[in-house]
Write a structure and sequence with these properties.
alpha/beta; Serine Threonine Protein Phosphatase 5, Tetratricopeptide repeat
Length: about 500
């Protein structure tokens, strides 16, 4: 099938080729959005509109809301739904494309909608996660033979299947492949207007306020965050804003301060938006490249994290189905971890003790509390945090399960290839090498409190987290008090 030139053919995979009877007209195009939740700079949406215009049929966007996908709570779901509420309004106002919200199992809601509207083509986002891959496999089986299904990698700058056809060993083995393809894929996005043919008048009403209230109530155990405003416009403000945008105001300190947990403002702050697809990594890379002359070292370090490291995580999860298991580790790491699993540990903590930050290590406790209350643990601390869980649990399988559980529950950007690979790097040596053998860790890279003290002001970080937690608790108490006063007045 020939694709329009606005989306490179390498970015699109045909999961299912529909067989259209000659006596039947083409049906509409449906874009099933899930990982790339944005209107602008979205290759999947561009492809859906291109294909609809080519066949002179209308296009609609559908989003399926899962109940607590992979343990998501109010923190993650509230952020996502508030972003989608803005997207619903913007996509209907600017492109006149209807937005449908489904609730339930995607393997049922998506095929049902395709049948109801007589769709000929389903365009979907790409995700390397097992659950999403299995849904797509099932949907391919359930839809009519006349429906084609295209998967578009709108999340990575270089599509994961183009960057490499196999599981890469490290950033070093992937970097050259990606850099070679950047001239072809790191390009500006085409301008997109409304589709030529309009969707028949239909009711796309979504009761966002009640939906968000209910989801936030159900997931109240992990409350929403105040420091990151959801949505595409907020994402662009973090990237390019005139007050404190990363590329406009904070870039120069990135290369020197990004590994200092006491300087969180040195980081881009983009990960929640990248995770939910509220901003395109490609847009971030284009804008960073445009200012490279001002801070070449900082931009190069940022692009390494944004492109190579992020896409290495997608590569790992795509080509290694056991990306969250000891079985997914390299053989040398699995072997050394199992040999040292019976080693005596100084401390053994339960998952509950770890979750409540009840350990003998004040630095680790601070990192856990930063995640629980702030929703985002500094990247350097995430490494130390996960390695200590390996040291304090009964074995590597237990350590990995606990670290992923806590990461997915509390991190605003949890349930993500970056999170799984971060835990796998720290505990199972993925994308790393063997180091000097020692008890418990075997040949896995070791980190300790003394090493952290050499790198940054540990006491300062502990005090910073204590202030952060205190301020959040105070605001929460004030909010509850105000709510009680309102109830009494009513």
């Amino acid at each position: 099938m020939a694709y329009p030139s606005s989306v490179q053919s390498g970015r699109v995979r045909v999961l299912k080729e529909g067989s259209r009877p000659s006596d039947r007209e083409m049906g509409p195009v449906v874009y099933w959005m899930f990982r790339d939740q944005r209107l602008r700079d979205n290759w999947a949406l561009i492809h859906a509109v291109d294909q609809a215009n080519k066949a002179s049929v209308p296009v609609a966007v559908g989003f399926n809301l899962f109940d607590e996908f992979l343990g998501a709570k109010a923190r993650q779901l509230g952020f996502m739904l508030r972003g989608l509420q803005q997207l619903h309004r913007d996509i209907q106002d600017t492109l006149h494309i209807p937005f449908f919200l489904f609730q339930g199992e995607a393997i049922e809601t998506i095929p049902t909608f395709l049948e109801e509207c007589g769709a000929s083509l389903l365009v979907t986002d790409f995700s390397p996660l097992r659950e999403v891959q299995s849904w797509k496999d099932e949907i391919c089986k359930r839809v009519s033979d006349s429906v084609s299904i295209h998967e578009v990698d709108a999340h990575n700058v270089v599509p994961v299947w183009v960057a490499s056809e196999k599981l890469e060993y490290s950033a070093k083995t992937l970097r050259g492949k990606i850099n070679k393809l950047l001239p072809e894929y790191l390009i500006d996005f085409p301008k997109m207007g409304p589709p030529i043919k309009k969707w028949a008048a239909t009711n796309c009403f979504v009761d966002w306020e009640n939906l968000i209230t209910e989801v936030v109530r159900k997931g109240a155990e992990v409350p929403e965050l105040e420091w990151c405003e959801p949505g595409e416009n907020a994402a662009m403000e973090v990237l390019m804003g005139s007050k404190s945008g990363f590329l406009t105001k904070r870039l120069k300190n990135y290369s020197t301060d990004r590994n200092n947990p006491l300087k969180p403002k040195a980081l881009s702050g983009l990960s929640p938006y990248l995770h939910f697809g509220q901003i395109s990594a490609q847009r971030c890379a284009i804008e960073a490249r445009n200012v490279r002359k001002l801070c070449p070292q900082a931009v190069d370090a940022f692009l390494e994290e944004l492109i190579v490291r992020r896409e290495l995580a997608d590569n790992f999860c795509f080509y290694q189905p056991q990306y969250d298991s000891l079985q997914g580790a390299w053989e040398w790491a699995r072997k050394t971890l199992l040999v040292h699993a019976p080693d005596k540990r100084e401390h053994i903590y339960t998952r509950e003790q770890l979750e409540k930050a009840q350990t003998a290590d004040p630095l680790w406790n601070a990192s856990q509390l930063e995640m629980v209350y702030g929703g985002k643990m500094h990247g350097f601390m995430r490494m130390y945090w996960a390695k200590k869980i390996l040291e304090w649990t009964s074995g590597p399988e237990d350590a990995l399960a606990i670290s992923i559980y806590l990461n997915d529950k509390y991190e605003i950007d949890g349930r993500d290839p970056n999170g799984y690979v971060g835990c796998m790097w720290s505990i199972c040596g993925v994308h790393d090498q063997g180091w000097q053998e020692r008890p418990v860790f075997g040949k896995i890279r070791y980190m300790n409190y003394a090493g952290c003290k050499r790198k940054f002001d540990v006491d300062g970080y502990i005090a910073y987290v204590k202030r952060l937690v205190g301020e959040i608790k105070k605001r929460k108490a004030e909010t509850l008090l105000n709510e009680k006063k309102k109830e009494l007045r009513i």
